[in-house]
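#struct-pred
JK: can someone run the complex with alpha-D-glucopyranose? inputs below
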Amino acid sequence: MKILRGLLLVSSLAFCLTPSFAQQKTIAAKVEALLSKMTLDEKIGQLNQYNGDWAATGPVTKDVGNKLDAIKQGKVGSVLNIMGTNHTRTFQEAAMQSRLKIPLLFGQDVIHGYSITFPIPLAEAASWDLEAMERSARVAATESAAAGIHWTFAPMVDIARDPRWGRVMEGAGEDTYLGSLIAKARVKGFQGKGLGNIDAVMACVKHFAAYGAAVGGRDYNSVDMSKRALWETYLPPFKAALDAGAATFMNSFNDLNGTPATGSSYLQRDILKGKWGFKGFVVSDWNSIGEMIPHGFVKDNYEAAEVAIKAGNDMDMESRAYIGNLAKLVKDGKVNISLVNDAVRRVLTKKFEMGLFDDPYKFINPAREKATMNQPENIEAARDMGRKSIVLLKNEKQILPLSKDFKTIALIGPLGKAKWDLKGAWSTDVDPNENVVSIYEGIQKQAPNAKLLYAEGCKVTDSVSVDFTEAVETAKKADVVVMAVGENIFMTGEARSKANIHIPGVQEDLIKAIVATGKPVVVLLMAGRPMVFNWTAAHAPAIVYAWWLGSQMGNSVADVLFGNYNPAGKLPMTFPRSEGQIPIYYNYLNTGRPSQGDNDTFYRSSYIDLPNTPQYAFGYGLSYTTFGYSNISISKTTIKKTETLTVSFDLQNTGKVAGEEIAQLYIRDMVAQPLRPIKELKDFKKVMLAPGETKRITFIIDKEKLAFYNDSLERITQPGEFKVMIGAASNNIKLEKSFQLTN
Ligand code: GLC
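RT: done, structure tokens with the ligand placed:
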């Protein structure tokens, strides 16, 4: 009896993780049975997605008639931007009036939280804490599923090396290795124990592909790169997300090497559904099918629909190209019905896996919605994620952590009392200022005995000289000054690329005026992207990069400022000294004349007016303590590609307070064809150490960490010398060893 019970337990556990083979067979049979009853129009209806009415996250198509009527007629398979159980019930009830009662999928951009807003994804990436990021996505899924949402259009996994691009805030930064691990963590967080669980939402990996490499960092712009660069740098996070079980993909607005991604059979059929065997479905980005017309790739929506369905785009978000043309394309013999059937199978399979045919109202429970939102443990998770995302850039004279004995603290800057801005782009809940802890409130709570003064100083967008007198006089009254400056919520996100990424307006002049008072000054920089702030970097005694940390930002920041949490974040993107350096990233090729400073004109691959180094490097971040790296050893000096090698070293907390260090492993293939970067991140460990404590850290190097793509897109390794580097940052290598790889 015990064995039977054990088997039952194992099988039920297996089911809750992913549909077992038996379940998949059952679902496949149900899909076939349903498909056989569907008319062509009903099939095309399943591939049609309309925007709801909560918000328009793209250009709205006018005069579309009554959406509820269209749903009742079986012409809609999914609705996005619909919030709350009351709204989703109305739309689902309409679907239940259609002939075959096929339930709708409700999709939403739950990018970094639903009711509780978590830090923007780029900030979370600075934590390098995969568990914390998975938990962040888990909370977002739990809340959004309780609000009737089945499907989030996340994670965005676009590698980005250009901080002018407004959507850098949405991803995991510039590194493929770190970005791949984060992609996996976020998919696992969103999908939890698997589709069909009441707190699991379908993930949607986007934007496939290479959207982050848009020329000039300009959103929607063209992308042109070698296939090797595509496979080496931009595709791996998508594959990692797929391997983590991602239910859906979203293609991208950009053209790639002359083909819009939405119409790219290379991306969607050859790679995604072919080589990678993806069984889920692909949704277009908003109207990206129709936008192949302005791209100049097709002449009308009739052709756009033909190109897109043939290229492997399954569902049409908001272009209406499919609903308006696919039936005719099939009748005209231009599109084989098998392509439509394949796309519909993929969509219906997900609806079955989500349990929506068993109960279309499964996710629509107002009592559960109310009971799930804003739970204390989830609010604490947001505060914790915020703390972990903060990067300490500078701390001269140990101004930080602030003493709680300060009698008077001055908070100065236009973001000191901000609320909505702190949520960052793509925050979802209805009331932008609801449940947000401002910087002012956070400091007030943690320094209740201090007198907290406040002066705005200027507006974020003030562009003319401003009278700073009040701010300066306020600073002079204080024992210490905290400045809250940076961008506003509208300066990053979609369609928010900027040519000038300096701290906006006259805020850096305000910083100069406050630093000139001679008071101890801590500059909090808040933005959704790396900004340029050379004067501040050189002259402010303490600088904290706080990004946008969401609902709990004021508390997370105060936890760090007052030392309740020792910052450990490290930059997931390179911070340039100037827009003129962009693109600038850490894993570049050495070139034949690597810059050696100014000692030789012909070895100055940098600019004549700027050094080649960034303001702050990928992987950089300080702590309130210090760390020592020593005693590196490797298990072998020669390995075959079938063998592994371990690298070990001692990591010590050489300071006076406990703290975490993110020790990074970089590798360089010294001689390779094609060329390999001067270093690549291949592992890291985030280690907590008590003062004085030493831990022996070990990394394992295997063939996969040494492999790369050749010009034939084969994943290979080449024998020769490799350098192993252990760093506190990409530009701060502490220890290194070399070894030989033989065949
Ligand atoms: C937007 C974005 C995409 C988002 C979709 C739905 O244009 O590009 O990331 O998921 O439309 O809002």
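RT: quick notes.
DSSP finds 23 helices and 26 strands in the chain.
The mean pLDDT is 95.
JK: thanks, will look after standup
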